[in-house]
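Quick illustration, no need to memorize.
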Amino acid sequence: MSTGQSALSPIGFPPEINHLAMAPRLDEIEGKTVYLVDCRFDDGDKLIAQMEDWFSKNMPEVHTKVRRKSGVYTKRDTELYEEIKEKGDAAIVGVGH
């Protein structure tokens, strides 16, 4: 005898993702522009600030540009990534924790 109740699975359906290959590594970064990108995840700005400080003290010949991703960390910032492709040589995209 049915009671009219049902159970739903909590597993859900993960979204499809497109796997992208990693960018090729540079042989050296001296004289290059490295973007340090804050993804707006908890304390990511602190991590990026520490990285910028490290580069200025240890590799002053590397030009760093700190940028903060627009919107939430889970959404792609196409405008920022186009800027990096056009003006940068490398990027470090950091999250907190």
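The two ends are 51 Å apart (CA to CA).
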